[in-house]
Design goal:
Distance between the termini: 27 Å
Strand content: 25-35%
Mean pLDDT: 94
Number of strands: 18
Low-confidence stretches: none
Radius of gyration: 18 Å
Shape: globular
Structural class: alpha+beta
Order of helices and strands: EEEEEEHEEEHEEEEEEHEHEEH
């Protein structure tokens, strides 16, 4: 497979906005044309909007935008800004008197370490839409990844910086890409080398580098810290309908499983969307495994590109590699 930039897939633009003082933000994917989409939610505590639209038995055949944001459930208000932006441009499902934009959204819990009252709202999401372009995006501590952290099972205060990352590949004309906001309770691993990249820190500020540490902490902890969730989008130029895209989203969670340990806990709201923006003929059995691969790689980029914020150490700050 050949590595490409996610924007080379075409058919969409991406905009981001963040509040570096409050340490939160949002990332929006706006489709050039309404795109068929699916979703798979694996975590036990999701914060999402309009998810039932993507159920194969629902009438909705395509959506106009997908929004990833911080703010926990408070951040769900941000979708109103995307709807306003699209309605002003006459984009949406035609109901006669107006067009209703179909916008799906998922949020991460990023109320720590920034200002817990600083949450993505409609104004922030509107600004993100205004900034949307087809140029490569800023990764790491930007957009929905601004307040993201990882490795919170040992102690929420001994975590490291998460972020937003992208990765895309092309195989025989089929392009598949991922964008993901990584805010996991677990540690983050490079899916190619199995090296731990970021996660829970010990009393000396070093990575445990011991996958069994989670089990030790979980066995003694009264309750798992619930402020987590990793949310992402798979986008492809393969022509797939909603049912197939739900399967692609499901298969993409294998990328979470390879890169995040542990994953899909009751303290996470892990969700993945999948959208089709092209007309290339491809089978789910190709697109799904490609989706898992790019998602795992994008998770790694999210933490390697992150910078420290609010006193939370980033991978690039570590003296060890």
């Amino acid at each position: 497979m050949k590595e490409i930039n996610i924007m080379e897939i075409g058919g969409f633009s991406i905009g981001q906005e963040e509040d570096l003082k409050g340490i939160t933000g949002c990332t929006v994917m706006l489709f050039d044309e309404a795109a068929p989409a699916g979703v798979d939610v694996r975590g036990g505590g999701p914060a999402s909007r309009e998810t039932p639209l993507l159920n194969p038995v629902a009438a909705c055949e395509a959506v106009h935008a997908i929004l990833l944001s911080g703010g926990s459930a408070f951040g769900l208000d941000a979708a109103g800004g995307v709807m306003q932006y699209l309605e002003e441009r006459n984009i949406g499902f035609d109901v006669g008197i107006t067009k209703v934009p179909l916008v799906v959204q998922s949020c991460i819990f990023d109320l720590m370490p920034g200002d817990y009252k600083a949450r993505p709202d409609a104004k922030m999401a509107y600004r993100a839409c205004e900034k949307a372009s087809k140029k490569p995006i800023l990764e790491g501590s930007h957009g929905a990844g601004c307040g993201a952290t990882v490795g919170k099972y040992h102690n929420p205060m001994s975590c490291m910086k998460g972020g937003i990352g992208t990765y895309a590949v092309e195989e025989n004309g089929i392009k598949v890409g991922a964008i993901v906001a990584v805010n996991a309770v677990g540690d983050i691993y490079d899916i190619d080398t199995n090296e731990e990249l970021a996660g829970a820190l010990d009393e000396n500020g070093k990575l445990f580098r011991d996958e069994t540490q989670y089990f030790k902490d979980a066995a003694s902890a009264a309750e798992l810290f619930s402020g987590n969730t990793t949310i992402g989008i798979i986008v492809t130029n393969a022509k797939l309908e909603k049912t197939a895209l739900n399967k692609v989203a499901s298969m993409a969670h294998n990328g979470y499983g390879r890169a995040i340990r542990p994953v899909h806990t009751m303290g996470d709201g892990d969700s993945i969307y999948a959208a089709s923006v092209g007309n290339e003929v491809a089978d789910v059995n190709l697109v799904g495994p490609m989706a898992a691969y790019v998602m795992g790689k994008a998770i790694g980029k999210a933490v390697t590109e992150a910078t420290s914020l609010g006193g939370v150490k980033a991978m690039r700050d570590m003296s060890e590699t």
